[in-house]
Amino acid sequence: MLEKNSRLYRCIMRYDVFSTAAYAGDAKEAHGNNVMAPVTVEADRTEAFTNQEQFQVENIIITEAAEKMFSENQQYCFFIKCDGIDRIDYVFEEKEKTEISEGTLKAEYEVRDGNLVVTITDSDPTKVESLSIPGLMVKKNMPYVILRMHSLYLSSDANEKIMPVIPEFFNIEEYVPPTPQKPLDIEIRMNEKTLLVNQQKKDLKVPAYISDTGAIMLPVRELTEIIPGMIVLWENEKKITTILYDVDILDISAETGEIKYLRENRIFPRRAEMKDGRMFINLRDMCKICRIRDNEIIWDATENVVTINTFVDDNSKK
Q1: Residues 112, 93: contact at Cβ < 8 Å?
Q2: With contact defined as beta carbons under 8 Å apart, do 216 and 299 qualify?
Q3: What is the rounded distance in angstroms from the CA atom of residue 82 to the CA atom of residue 230?
Q4: I want to staple 55 with a disulfide (CB 3.0 to 4.6 A). Which of 48, 107, 158, 316 is the partner?
Q5: Residue 2 contacts by C-beta under 8 Å, 6 or more apart in sequence?
Q6: Going by DSSP bridges, is the β-strand pair 231-235/297-300 parallel, antiparallel, or unpaired?
Q7: More reliable by pLDDT, 174 or 84
Q8: Are 138 and 93 in contact (CB under 8 A)?
Q9: In terms of pTM, does the model score above 0.85?
Q10: pLDDT category of residue 104 using cuts at 50, 70 and 90
């Protein structure tokens, strides 16, 4: 049996970016003391967000740094803290005492007052042993939490020396809700000055047409009537039309038809065309900029109708 006068070790968990284990030797070198941590501790990184009131962390694996460590140091206390911050943003959820048995190693753990307490009740002093604490739940202790990286530290009450045991435990990031989506259904008939957008008829000053190479060409200026959020600008001095959509920018030369995709710094293989004083762009190039997939485009060669069924950001609900 283990002696009852063993040291109580306290571990500070701080949420961070990578998942690695730090060893006692690292702690000794970092702090310039001769006290060796009795254990090494490992846990894969957990990603969490500010909108989560609680979340589960990965398993915590505690291993003896050498033989007899569990016999000489029987109890460990873990709590969560952010470096340089006095307040406690997160705590472990309360959990009743649970027994663990892994071979000759026997232990128990519980969560009291937000702290994880692990007690070794029996171990084999002739070999290095380890135990795993299954994924525990962590909950907010503050209404507003700090977006900060945290780590797992180990300290001894006997000497008050702090030694890192896990550089990264879990990472808290700000939650950004996804933009709501709404359906966008477009029906374009070749050589007609109207189209349908979500069953609503819209007039076109010039119709779409099929080029000599068999490509469906759309009037650039009318794209703003078709795609919500698209902006078309004209620079008269340089004779360049610019299409803006989200983070993408297309520069189209009225003189050469060259289409430059600025975000990828490349030239589209298909050129724009001028017809009846209007600039037209290939349907496929327009769909690429608008993130419309090929399987969302249907071409009816019999009726000369192209149908697009997709989804776009619903900015009215942001």
Answers
A1: no
A2: yes
A3: 44
A4: 48
A5: 70, 71, 74, 120, 121, 122, 123
A6: unpaired
A7: 174
A8: yes
A9: no
A10: very high
